[in-house]
Amino acid sequence: MKSTTTRNLLRRRAFLFTLFLLSVALSLQAQMLFSENMTMKIDSSKPIQGTFSAMVNFKTEHEELFEVKTFSNLNILLGRRHVINLMGRFEFTTYGSKITVDEGDLHAEYRYLLRPSFEVYPYVEAQWAGTRGLIRKVSTGVQARYRPINTEHSLMFLTTALFYEAEDWKNLSGDTLSPPYGYNRNIRLHLSTSYRHRLSDKWEITATAIHQANPRYYFSRARFGGALDLKFHLSKVVGLRGTYRFIYDTSPVVPMRKMLIFTNAFLDITF
């Protein structure tokens, strides 16, 4: 009886904590976070686990270049069926006195494992990328994820979600950055598949394909995304990870490139 009361108390606290995270994210100022690539596998023996990655670059060219990139992924296990997952990314680059990159994002989800191969969870995301026109974006919804493959070397997930997004944009291609801005308030359906394969004891590869669209304009105004991660494990704690991301938006809110590509290399610390 006591253990049941304790579990209920933990669940209640987790729910309140998630609501707090939602309120924080909604108060904040890249259109896809590719969180699927970072939540493939969770160690049930660790109540708290995660990854931290960082990169700092400084050069003295015609002007001084300073660059910082960080990524964090934290999982908090509550019993055997409940997980709070928190992710954050921050990128900042200056060239002389000019800011060339200023962007970041936050992601929070409360995962509930209905069955060993099936889970559902509400989530919320917040993003900003001022140097490419995205003033702020907030999205929230519910996802369901099914695991058809789970072997020693391979892991696969199929995911669907229904979410609401609110975006505010600046038109960087115009003659002025003053209002009016571009706005997007939309309901979208999310479909994705993720696959991770362990090539050897040291190497593993993870790939994700994503499709997002309003159900009324499923193909004419769709957003596509892809992600590829290649990781080399130096030890159980330290690893090197190269990432490739692309987003193709068939109907951008403001005039801009429809195809966006991001590549990065990180030193990962896992705990």
Automatic annotation (TrEMBL):
Name of the protein this chain belongs to: DUF481 domain-containing protein
Organism per entry: Tannerella sp. oral taxon BU063 isolate Cell 1/3
